[in-house]
């Protein structure tokens, strides 16, 4: 079973919500999970209705199975100070560099440095052990950048290791890539049954596979139930007159041709046709997602929006679908 779950997806697909639900689903039977945010949006704090996450691991929820969920918002600047202290013992000097703006320069201007620090911090949490030798966290879930740049984000350490041939930077970059490319990591993609998100998912899977990164599952988010199939729509169109009469009997207008009752039927049939067309398109997109050869999980659209009860509801769906096994 994977221990590092990287969750990516096109903007607007509910990536953060799915990452939060996955962290909850994995926190079963006394297990401890860590949910990490790396984009600085504080989306996790909003979902769990808590104050902004600091640069420290803090318990934010109890999973449906009784385990604990901790959360961390990785700050690139503070991660660099940790890095300088860890490898170069420059705690005081690092703070001096921060005062003169060198830290800000390194994390915003130097190519790839920011992503190296973010992935490095996450992988450190994956590898960290207790005094008794067990892992501190049974699973780590990363709310990662969007699909369009996920392969570059995760692969930056490969580039750094190639540039720095020796020394602690080289060793750290190699250690991170050993985690990211190992069987204990899975990169999951979140999509909707819409053309652009599905195409970006297909492209993202190809890019991840090309980079040698382990692809996990596809989460099809915000699915809606089918109300009418094409056959039902055709039957309704053929029974247009009978439907108008039924409306009239229900007090929705006269039964005469062109009356109010019949005028109501046209818009309803148009909506039914649009619904059937959407179902046909979604069926084609499902086939495209299934063609990736990955486990696929569907999550229903949350009627009340992405809030804390909704996240728990999705976590229960994921557990029922076996993601924690």
UniProtKB/TrEMBL annotation:
Domain of life, per lineage: Bacteria
Source organism per entry reads Streptomyces desertarenae
Locate the ArsA/GET3 Anion-transporting ATPase-like domain: which residues?
Answer: 5-179
Write the protein's name.
Answer: ArsA-related P-loop ATPase
What Pfam family is a match, any one?
Answer: ArsA_ATPase
